[in-house]
Design goal:
Distance between the termini: 37 Å
Helix content: 55-70%
Number of helices: 16
Oligomer: single chain
Strand content: under 5%
Order of helices and strands: EEHHHHHEHHHHEHHHHHHH
Shape: globular
Number of strands: 4
Length: 384
């Protein structure tokens, strides 16, 4: 028994179209995000072993903690791409707003004893306000000047955190969050699944906000600014306001990510304030594909997973038994990450998001190998 799909032409008449490979491919492209979301949501209920990818079963606390971290940074890279891939702004200070959301919430909890919901709201507002103030200053310059100003602000924030003013930041040790003031359902190994769902919700929210913003009229102006800012000015628009909107929105999403990171790790760490943290986001975006819908998310997830798993590989017995000429470089996780990054950039210009289109082009290539002289001779002989 076969089924058909009804379509309408320009006159409004219905036509039955039999299902085929092309229709199936279109359905897969349309519905795979929903299917992926359902699979991710059900992961805590699964005991599926994934040797090589995860240390334990899919639903074990250790695996869920790693997956939650991957989802968190996939969302963070997606928000960062609002600046880099959508508006053409290369910021080296994006980590500052991520750290602001984490540290501000933690300080409100520890110093004032406010409930977590109130502290989280205040921490988010602090991160947004910081992005608004610093963005309004940074965007007064363009190009490399903008990048250097954001880097200067990030370095100042990192130094401030490491100096531990008034004992508020904990210095190089960071500061643990008070477990008694955090939601009870988000504390402890037995509640790792809840933390995983929080990270998944943050990813979905970030993807939805970025998708909505990019498709809006403001998003189309961002695209114009990235292509030619002077042309946008000629059209009578002021790029500064639109760039500041992108900066603040990306900062707000980063501050929200800092809240999620605080819950996942149980505290605030100074490593999240450094410019190296922002450089990691840059690598994630380039790895996945800057300016694409799913690329930054894929790059963030892959980079975070590799950062954790390659460390285990570097310390494994298989690497320890190799000759020194191989053992020394392979025992360095950063070396392995660098090799992976260079390979993807060289073999897949445009990032992992371009892989499906490149594979499709390879499949179509045998049908389009006719040379120009052969094509001209065929037309001269009157053959179609």
């Amino acid at each position: 028994m076969s089924t058909v799909t009804e379509t309408h032409d320009r006159t409004g008449e219905k036509h039955a179209v039999a299902p085929g490979p092309g229709n199936t491919a279109r359905l897969l492209r349309r519905w795979w995000p929903a299917a992926a979301l359902l699979i991710l949501a059900a992961a805590p209920y699964s005991a599926l072993p994934l040797p090589g990818l995860l240390d334990g079963p899919l639903g074990s606390p250790g695996s869920l903690q790693l997956l939650a971290t991957c989802l968190l940074f996939g969302a963070l890279a997606t928000g960062y791409d609002l600046l880099l891939g959508r508006t053409g702004l290369l910021s080296f200070g994006h980590a500052l707003y991520f750290a602001a959301g984490s540290y501000a919430t933690n300080m409100f909890l520890l110093e004032t004893g406010l409930p977590f919901a109130v502290s989280a709201l205040l921490g988010l507002c602090f991160g947004i306000a910081l992005a608004l103030v610093l963005g309004s200053v940074s965007l007064r310059v363009t190009g490399i000047g903008f990048s250097m100003v954001t880097l200067a602000f990030a370095q100042a924030g990192s130094i401030l955190v490491s100096r531990n003013p008034g004992g508020l930041t904990g210095g190089e040790e960071g500061r643990a969050a008070p477990a008694d003031l955090l939601p009870s359902g988000l504390v402890g190994i037995e509640h790792t699944a809840n933390l995983y769902w929080v990270a998944l919700a943050y990813l979905v929210l970030t993807l939805a906000v970025v998708h909505w913003a990019v498709r809006s009229s403001t998003g189309r102006v961002w695209e114009g600014i990235k292509e030619n800012e002077r042309r946008v000015e000629v059209l009578g628009l002021k790029p500064y306001g639109f760039k500041l909107t992108a900066f603040v929105l990306a900062g707000a999403l980063a501050a929200l990510g800092g809240l999620v990171h605080l819950l996942l790790t149980g505290g605030s760490t100074p490593q999240t304030t450094t410019s190296d943290f922002t450089l990691s986001l840059l690598v994630m975006v380039v790895l996945g594909g800057s300016g694409t819908r799913w690329g930054p998310m894929v790059g963030g997830i892959l980079y975070t997973w590799a950062d954790h798993r390659l460390g285990d590989l570097a310390g494994s017995g298989a690497v320890a038994d190799l000759p020194s000429v191989l053992r020394v470089p392979l025992s360095q996780p950063l070396f392995l990450l660098g090799v992976l990054f260079v390979a993807v950039v060289h073999l897949l210009p445009g990032g992992l998001a371009r892989l499906p289109s490149r594979l499709a082009a390879v499949r179509r290539r045998p049908a389009t190998t006719e040379t120009l002289p052969a094509r001209k001779a065929r037309k001269e002989n009157g053959r179609p």
